[in-house]
Write a structure and sequence with these properties.
alpha+beta, elongated, 405 residues, five-stranded antiparallel β-sheet
Length: 405
């Protein structure tokens, strides 16, 4: 501090001057560093792919990043000071102020600190899915909420495409299974068709005699021919339904007929006439909520795998059974007396392309797991102590109110 004086002013009074000198080097350095940090933070916020919206405790927008501008189609200048509910479609728009008021009065968090999927609305009125994460801080005694938002439109479109591809793969798997059974299926159909032709030829010859006894025999032969025609039609129906490719619709189905039909379809032309097959079902019918064709696809795959595993085995026993597990689900088991599963592939048995077959693609069990898990169940394998393997899967029981006992 320096002080200079003059003895007298023109009025005879003492007049003095003072000057204060202060070193502001550190202050300038701090201000420069703060400015650099602010610019750096702004640069990060302007380039981060997630949109950022900052609001005060009344829901008014105080900051709107460049990514938020691109996401919603609003310019920052147009939204600052406005209620953030403008970015929400109904019913969230109507309820948002109530949510904030409830949080201010109770302090109970519903969104803050959690990752949620919500819907937003663009400037053009288009609604779209968002992944929302909200954080809270205090500034000057006031709450500030920072929301980070990510557009899920492309992700959901990709997930839907993957579901379509998975559905197509499941369908192709069914076609492949039918392809391997095609020649034997033709042989199976040939039997009732040949029987029909024989019965009809016999009745034609018998019609030369019009006696009542002959007419009665003709009626019996025609009944037999009709039965064989129904048998052939049943084979065709099961095959057509198995390869059907339509919208996946779950419905309440009785499990017993579903299992029996799948077993009959699986054993067509198996080439193993000596297999001792047992289908063990409870006395009381179980009803399940399933897509019948897809669950039959799982059964056909497991049963045909069991048949192949028993090729060359001395005693061939195939058991298909249903029971209830501890969680109240219905369990379906397919057990064989074959050579068992190679321990080297046990851990990855249900992964894609894991197979011990020379000509297998390793997709059957992987697709089966996809189907069962989509039905809310699980699938697994256990070795049989006396030799062989048992494959099990669970299904959801249908609510009793949805079917009549």
């Amino acid at each position: 501090i320096t002080l200079s004086t003059e003895p007298q002013s023109h009025g005879g009074a003492l007049r003095g001057f003072g000057k204060v000198v202060r070193d502001i080097t550190d202050q300038r350095a701090s201000e420069t560093a703060l400015t650099r940090r602010e610019l750096h933070l702004r640069s990060i916020l302007e380039t981060v792919p997630d949109a950022m919206v900052v609001i005060d405790e009344r829901g008014r927008i105080t900051s709107f990043s460049a990514a938020a501008e691109r996401l919603f189609g609003h310019a920052q200048a147009d939204v600052i000071g406005r209620n953030v509910k403008m970015l929400m479609p109904n019913p969230d728009r109507r309820q948002h102020d109530g949510y904030l008021e409830n949080y201010r009065s109770t302090g109970k968090r519903k969104v803050i600190g959690k990752l949620r999927v919500v819907r937003g609305i663009r400037q053009n009125g288009e609604t779209f899915p968002l992944e929302l994460s909200v954080g809270e801080t205090l500034s000057g005694g006031q709450r500030i909420f920072t929301a980070f938002l990510r557009d899920l439109t492309e992700r959901q479109a990709t997930e839907l495409k993957m579901q379509d591809l998975q559905s197509e793969l499941i369908h192709v798997s069914r076609l492949s299974a039918m392809g391997t059974m095609a020649s034997t299926l033709a042989h199976e159909l040939n039997q009732p068709l040949t029987a029909i032709a024989n019965y009809l030829e016999t009745t034609r010859d018998m019609l030369a005699d019009s006696s009542p006894k002959t007419i009665e025999r003709v009626r019996g032969a025609l009944d037999e021919a009709s039965g064989q025609a129904l048998r052939a039609g049943d084979i065709v129906r099961r095959s057509r339904e198995f390869v059907a490719h339509g919208v996946v619709l779950q419905s309440v189905e009785p499990l017993g007929p579903l299992v029996r039909e799948a077993a009959a379809l699986s054993l067509i032309g198996s080439g193993q006439p000596d297999i001792d097959t047992a289908v063990e079902l409870p006395d009381e019918e179980d009803w399940v909520l399933v897509d019948r064709v897809q669950i039959q696809q799982v059964l056909v795959n497991l049963i045909r795998n069991a048949v192949q595993a028993m090729v060359g085995s001395g005693e061939q026993r195939l058991t298909i059974a249903t029971s209830h597990d501890a969680n109240g689900l219905v369990q379906v088991s397919v057990q064989d007396s074959g050579s068992g599963v190679n321990p080297a592939v046990t851990d990855r048995l249900f992964q894609a392309f894991a197979t011990t077959k020379k000509d297998g693609m390793g997709l059957g069990l992987s697709i089966s797991r996809t189907i069962i898990e989509a039905h809310g169940g699980r699938i697994w394998m256990t070795p049989v102590p006396d030799g062989g393997s048992a494959f099990h899967f669970t299904l959801m029981r249908a609510p009793e109110a949805t079917y009549v006992r």
